[in-house]
Write a structure and sequence with these properties.
This protein is of the alpha+beta class. The protein folds into 2 domains: 27-99; 103-195, Ribosomal protein S6/Translation elongation factor EF1B (Alpha-Beta Plaits). It contains 4 helices and 5 strands. It has helices at residues 2-22, 25-99, 106-119, 151-162; strands at 123-129, 133-134, 138-149, 168-178, 183-195. The model has no long low-confidence stretch (mean pLDDT 78).
């Protein structure tokens, strides 16, 4: 019975194939192309195009993520460099802070300046701390000094003050001969600096 159905179907298609065989080669070629297009078009429309669009979206997303990753890596490198610079700045600040005494250390520092003069053999005639002058993160503490002694002793005093662990600048130095024993009288301002915690 199946053979009979197939035969009937083939019989029905035979006139169609006869007509096709009578067509010119060009028409047969066009019919093949149209038939092929009708078979392929649904596959392209329903299967390939959605995946192609999805591929396009994924490529765009990948490109965006790749750019973000590149920017993040650059920032990470900069962060490491900035952290190293910050650490270096902190070390320098700590070192500078050690050179600037705290308020409680000022009396000891002034005593060290006096001791440096006396050890150098100088006679003190004036040692007068004056009002501090506040700057950004430090304060200047000036001290008016007048001493008398030999030139060598005065030079030794300057040398010892320069060697103190804290910063002390000697400014406005004025020297003049004093008496027959070739001593000199020296007037100057010793300026030391005090670290001031955040204002």
């Amino acid at each position: 019975m199946k053979k009979k159905k197939l035969q009937i179907s083939a019989d029905k298609l035979e006139p169609f194939f006869d007509k096709l065989s009578k067509l010119s080669m060009l028409y047969r070629f066009l019919i093949c192309i149209v038939t092929y297009a009708l078979l392929v078009a649904p596959f392209v429309w329903f299967s390939y195009l959605p995946k192609y669009e999805q591929i396009g979206k994924l490529e765009k997303e990948f490109e965006d993520l790749d750019n973000k990753l590149r920017i993040a890596r650059t920032k990470a490198l900069q962060l490491a460099r900035m952290e190293a610079l910050l650490e270096e700045a902190k070390d320098k600040f700590d070192l500078a802070k050690k050179k600037l005494p705290q308020a409680r250390e000022i009396p000891d520092l002034l005593a060290n300046i006096t001791a440096s003069g006396q050890e150098s053999g100088l006679q003190f005639y004036l040692f007068e701390p004056r009002a501090e002058s506040r700057k950004d993160f430090y304060a200047e503490i000036p001290v008016s000094i007048r001493v008398e002694g030999s030139y060598k002793d005065t030079a030794m005093f300057f040398y010892r003050v320069a060697g103190l662990s804290r910063i002390v600048n000697l400014k406005n130095i004025s020297m003049e001969p004093k008496g027959p024993d070739k001593n000199i009288s020296t007037s100057c301002n010793a300026v030391t600096y005090m670290f001031v915690e955040g204002k």
